[in-house]
């Protein structure tokens, strides 16, 4: 059977013209992919970013169990504007699981004694890694504890009549020698 290319071209042209005349088809083929999808992806990105900013700006509610055993650390936490220290009401663990608080810091009875005697004090921080607010609270508390730890180290160094440089025997300065053109890949 011989194909007649003239007839095939004629049918193809008629179908193409019929498709272009149909407004719904043009909308589905052109308008939606060119306008709707980019707007959809920008909207998803925008709202995701706004939710993340909102979580970062929110105050983290935490419960400290054994606050009386580390008053200086508790003061560090209370002085932070992004952390609200709540009194333990009921079961702290269930409050954390319900999302009523974002973290629980447990301070053992011998914490202050160990710190003053030059030993390492242990803390337990409970949080819910599946919740963004709880993870943010964990990061904030870790940062404050690092600051507190640095202060303790400086106190211990001064008690031993050592300079701060004693614990930092090396300082490395890195210098980039690449030209700006090389950095941009030009």
TrEMBL record:
Gene3D superfamilies recorded: abc type-2 transporter like domain
Ribonucleoprotein as UniProt keyword: no
Domain ABC-2 type transporter transmembrane stretches: 23-153
Transmembrane segments: 26-47
InterPro entries: ABC2_TM
Entries under Pfam families matching the protein: ABC2_membrane_3
Membrane topology: Multi-pass membrane protein
Alphabetic keyword roster: Membrane, Transmembrane, Transmembrane helix
Gene Ontology MF annotations: ABC-type transporter activity
Subcellular location: Membrane
GO cellular component: membrane
Protein name: ABC-2 type transporter transmembrane domain-containing protein
